[in-house]
């Protein structure tokens, strides 16, 4: 949010634009996209690579943990 304010965008406009944004959902979409290319890798390697990808994109550690837990639960159900 600070970055947006430094660019001169009013706080109200920034909050309105970000009101529908769910960080965890965005992280899950990215994880699902990345998983398509990692099918042959062992689970621990996949988890490490996904966590690194999310970290580099600026996601919080809490969001990364939630996204990876959702993926783990989804893979176990299959």
Give an account of the 3D structure.
This protein has 78 residues and is mainly alpha-helical. Helix content is 73%, strand content 0%. The chain has helices spanning 2-6, 11-18, 23-35, 43-56, 61-77.
Structure keywords:
single chain; 78 residues; mainly alpha; 5 helices
* Main sheet attributes: strand count, strand direction, barrel closure: none
The amount of beta strand, in percent, is under 5%
> What percent of the residues sit in helical stretches (DSSP H or I)?
over 70%
Low-confidence stretches: none
| Alpha-carbon distance between the two ends | 38 Å
Quickly give the structural class: mainly alpha
Overall form: elongated
Radius of gyration: 15 Å
Q: What is the average of the pLDDT values?
A: 83
The string of secondary-structure elements, in order, is HHHHH
According to DSSP, the number of beta strands is: 0
List the total number of helices.
5
Summarize this entry quickly:
With 78 residues, this protein is an all-alpha fold. It contains five helices and no strands.
Element layout with pairings:
Layout: H1 2-6, H2 11-18, H3 23-35, H4 43-56, H5 61-77
């Amino acid at each position: 949010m600070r970055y947006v304010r430094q660019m001169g965008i009013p706080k109200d406009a920034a909050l309105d634009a970000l009101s529908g944004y769910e960080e965890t959902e965005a992280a899950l979409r990215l994880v699902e996209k990345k998983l398509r290319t990692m099918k042959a890798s062992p689970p621990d390697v996949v988890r490490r690579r996904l966590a690194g990808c999310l970290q580099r994109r600026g996601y919080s550690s809490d969001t990364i943990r939630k996204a990876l837990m959702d993926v783990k639960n989804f893979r176990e159900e299959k």
